Amino acid sequence: MASSWVGQWRSSAWVVSTCLLVALLTCTLRCSECVTLSNIILILTDDQDVEMGGMTPMKKTKELIGDAGVTFSNAVSFTATPLCCPSRSSIITGKYPHNHLVRNNSISGNCSSTAWQKEAEPFAFPVYLNKMSYQTFYGGKYLNQYGSKDAGGVDHVPPGWDQWHALVGNSKYYNYTLSVNGKEEKHGDNYEKDYLTDLVLNRSLHFLEERSPNHPFFMMLCPPSPHSPWTAAPQYQQSFSDVKAPRNGSFNMPGKDKHWLLRQPANPMPNSSIEYLDNAYRRRWQTLLSVDDMVEQLIKKLDSIKELNNTYIFYTSDHGYHTGQFSLPIDKRQLYEFDIRIPLLVRGPGIKPKQTLQSPVLNIDLSMTILDIAGANLSTVNMDGQSFLPQMAPWLRNGTERPFFLVEYTGEGHSSEDPSCPKLGPGLAECFPDCVCEDAFNNTYACVRVLKDANLQYCEFADNESFVEVYNLTSDPHELENIVKKVDPALLQIMNQRLIKLQSCTGDIYLCSGFFFFFSSFCQNI
């Protein structure tokens, strides 16, 4: 009897165990089917400022992304470097320029060079996404030298992209060439067929229609707006006819006590320069109206295919811009807030609507945030940035804010004199006919931007003067007064040491923040 009972018990236990195992496997399969990875879209404009009103034309974008999610205050979102190719390289790699080694917009400056393609592109964040079964799409401007003969031509398609529709060279609106999955595609000047902002939108919509619903997607859309030549769509060429560049702050002010490049423009500016920059300012806004339409059409499409509520949408720019600040007509490249601050709006699952955040964010953080959303193990990713998902949705992630960061730039110049400006000699670039030059070889600088305990900018130039600029942006938000001779020398020494450490940092920036609180008391006394 006992052995019979034991046998029956063992048989029953086996049946129960088997049933439990089957149930567990069924549950696991069902649960895995229920876990849906979020889609991600990054919209990256070209030269769009936030300090000079660059988001004013973007009414639909502010409503559909900012009001539906989070807008980072223009005081807290920054680029790591204020120039196109180095900045875009920072976004793609999540690294500071001193780590990805792109110095400027030229091949010799490592912009889309063959060395970059071998050493940086294989570790860019789209490669990680693609390995995680994300379907990936790129449309628009990539890097300034992309597609040139010295950069491997249009045949080169960076790893990680399933669909590749990239502009060859710098921003244009008409009469450009694309690399479409490694094949050359030439375009003319027909608005319906060729206007680049609309083309990027239309191809992204086609990608959404053709994608597999079984896998998440990532799209990076990079329209040319509002970069020169500022060619607006026909329906917007008369918009903002009465608009002029803002006349407040540092507009038409002398570059007193600043680096020599800022001291050389004529002040006040001649009327010809003011008319030119006003026209540029107005036309920049006109081109942005098509980007605003792009955002609206994209969100309508996501809603129609029932993916809107499962999609994170980021809207930002590669750097800022200036129009008349410190008597510089138009450009970027400078260390001041108008060139380094950028717009940043994000919506997506778990992000509460109508938030305005004061958490400092850098464009090197975009890649880590996107990978965080995708579920990547960030500890295995070698990048300098950090995810800001915890700031947008603290109920999803725990995290910390960066109290400071690095801004760096390598100046460009010509070995011969500029014909427009022979009196200033060689070594200059981006010169205007009235002898105002926006760049030079020794316009090379590195800055520590502090946002905790004090709103402070400390910058050192690599020139024969070892020139230093320091600004207290709490009392002087337009950076009119260089206070380097007024602050405690002990603070200058501490900032110098912090700058040295930041310029040698690799990986998570908090590895380099060991003595931040040591100088907080100095900052409070500025």
TrEMBL record:
Its EC number is 3.1.6.14. SUPFAM superfamilies: Alkaline phosphatase-like. One of its GO terms (molecular function) is metal ion binding. It is an enzyme of class 3 (hydrolase). The modification 3-oxoalanine (Cys) is found at residue 84. GO terms for cellular component: lysosome. The conversion to 3-oxoalanine (also known as C-formylglycine, FGly), of a serine or cysteine residue in prokaryotes and of a cysteine residue in eukaryotes, is critical for catalytic activity. Residues 1-34 form the signal peptide. InterPro entries: Alkaline_phosphatase_core_sf, GlcNAc_6-SO4ase, Sulfatase_CS, Sulfatase_N. PROSITE patterns: SULFATASE_1. It is found in: Lysosome. Keywords: Calcium, Glycoprotein, Hydrolase, Lysosome, Metal-binding, Signal. GO terms for biological process: glycosaminoglycan metabolic process. Pfam families: Sulfatase. Residues 38-376 form the Sulfatase N-terminal domain. Its cofactor is Ca(2+). Belongs to the sulfatase family. This is N-acetylglucosamine-6-sulfatase. It comes from Sinocyclocheilus anshuiensis. The lineage of its organism: Eukaryota, Metazoa, Chordata, Craniata, Vertebrata.
